[in-house]
Here is the input.
Amino acid sequence: MLKNVKYLTKYAKTSMRVAVFAITLFVLLTNNCFGQSITWQRTYDGPAHYNDRAYSLTPADGNNFYVVGRTIVSGYYHYILKLNEFGDTLWTRSIQLNPGFGAFSLSSISDGSGGVVVTGDNDTSFTMKLDKYGNIVWYKNYYMIATMCNKIIKKNSDGYLICGRKQGTDDHGYVLSVDTSGNLLWQNLYLSTEYKNFNDVLEFNNSFYLAGAITDAPIDTQQVLLTKIDFFGDVQWEKRYTIFGRDGNGQKIERLNDKIFIAGTTTDSILPEARGYFMTIDTNGNEISTKVLQATKSEILQDLLILNENRLLFILTSDSSFYISTTRVIVTDLSGNIIYEKHFVPPQNEGDIHLVSGMKTSNGDLIFAGNSYIDTNATSEDVFVARTDSMLYVPPIGISSYENELPKDYRLYAAYPNPFNPVTNIKFEIPKDVNVSIKIYDILGREVFSINEYKKAGSYEVHFDGSNFASGMYFYKLETDRFSDTKKMVLLK
Here is the structure.
């Protein structure tokens, strides 16, 4: 009996060591695959401090990304911001290439080398490419008057496909195909008797699936529209859907394996209020299932992301009876059951937070963009961007805006909070455009964090997360070609 007990004890210890090793290996692999979450939310004020909006998000080089939209200077301008993973502004561009007409950048896509290609509403159909430094590489006008380009994707065979609508007495669907230099390959109109609009597009098996909405004349119920075209723009088939007999639109389209998801807005079965929905169909356009998303007030669906094999994310905006426009972000399973939920609400309970676009990062975090009116002293909207973890956690809002006066001197502020656990903020000011280096060292002088970027004159904040570091004293250093300063901070866990 004692011999068996000794054997079992030895076996238990061996099993425990194996289990500890397995858990340690899993943690290491998980950290390497996903990394530490970086969470924040900020506003960005445009050059004229007036009505700034974001409509699209796109990855850039490294962990940087683009926020694309419009601003008002002397009329509407394309507005493009390049941000790093902490939300710091690397550069902004306000561009108006067709004076006299509204300029909106509604959709964007990475060019594959750190730059961005945008399209939108500039009276005529167009595409524009900027390199990773913000220089215009090309601007191409396709002279289709009164055309709104809603979405651009990168084709598997190189080049880009753009969809939208041409406005007129009757609105017609519109699709544009260009090569990698923006040169026109073909553009087609898809005629209607009243209204046809393509909001989104995906490519699958050398075909393109276009999601949108259609209304026939005489005025009929607006239906969800799905059109399949070949590589040259010829229609292969077209399907229409209602949401349990009610009207709807196809705002977003995504694919997961052999299933296609269309999401948009419909109306409530009892109340005259808007509701988000999503529909699952096969690649032949046959409906598999439809789910209306439950809500307590009227909501408009803005975006859909497929997070993984079992998770969907929806962005929905709503107006309350207290004149507060809010955004609800939900993560669901494939049946529409809510797993995580986050409400973006103005902190002063007045104004709005209106998010319209989402993006998943390489470490699993989520980025959302749109516009806000959250400062009680503000007179117009600002671009609003938030970065959450995979469970939609995000810290309180920080406001980043242009100062009326640029800093007169270089200055490195004391970190706050200090001591900290696990996150602190390092603020600094630079009076001129310059290359800036921020480095953090542990007590042994080992570098544990660094940023080296070119920044315009202004005030900035760097967010440092010490979750993966030991308690103790750390030193942070600001350095430019003419200035250097070092301060200390303490991490207490």
Notes: The helical segments are 2-34. Residues 310 and 334 are 6 Å apart (CA to CA). The first strand starts at residue 40 and ends at 44.
